[in-house]
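Page 42, continued from yesterday. The earlier attempt failed because a stray header line got pasted into the input along with the sequence. Redoing it now with the clean sequence only.
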Amino acid sequence: MSHAPPIATAQQSALRLHNVSVTLSGVPVLTGVTCAPAAGVINAIIGPNGAGKTTLLRAILGLVPHTGVIEIGRRPDGRPLKLGYVPQRLDFDRGMPIRVMDFLCLGLQRRPIWLGHTRKARLLAAECLERVGGRAWPDRRLGVLSGGELQRVLLAAALTSRPDVLLLDEPVAGVDVAGEELFCDLLASLQAEGRYTMLLVSHDLSIVTRHARYVICLNQAVQCQGPAVETLNAENLKALYRHDVALYAHHGAHEGHAHDCGAPGCGSEPPPAGREDRS
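This time it went through. Structure tokens are written below.
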């Protein structure tokens, strides 16, 4: 790990990254990423395909080796904040007879699920399933769920760890419009409780515009970052997506809120107080 300046306290940010780089199979995927997602709100990571967005989440989770510093904030009692993760998809055999309750209890008990669920695991799983609108699903087979229903089950699974920070990797990719709206409204409802810091990877700028408070524009390195209303402007999006900007710009980016540009096409306004912008 490289040395870095002192990292802010948990009161300033739930999560801070300084000069984080990832190389996989000899290929640089992330280079010098420095950012501090805003605490207690929905943060969005946007960027073109191959920008390293999923790799960044995996680095935060400790699933890929990295250089630089990733610091997780702490709770008032001094314990590290817990991370929860919602993947883009769940690869499994849809013909398997596993039920929703079985799936949720897998990580909550040591006893094999075919021997039954412990009362503690069952109660926690049922609570989290109800929070995502799945009260009637415990006995449904995982393989018969729609895409939107399955993503809500994955969210329920993440909630069973009682996380403080939720990392979501394009959770509505491949979900129909109705399921997408329901899932995003659910995220907004959870965030409104004030308990979570969310880090959401999304290609859909309409979702980002409606729900994110802070945006990190990533293309291997951080191109720009800041409050969504100021960062999502045509100039920044053109610099980020280049030739593909037409695919994204019509999704409702805010106009008329550009930063002053410290680099070609990218806003340089510093993030909120207590947060360090890209060096």
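Notes: Residues 105 and 122 are 7 Å apart (CA to CA).
Reminder to self: strip header lines before submitting.
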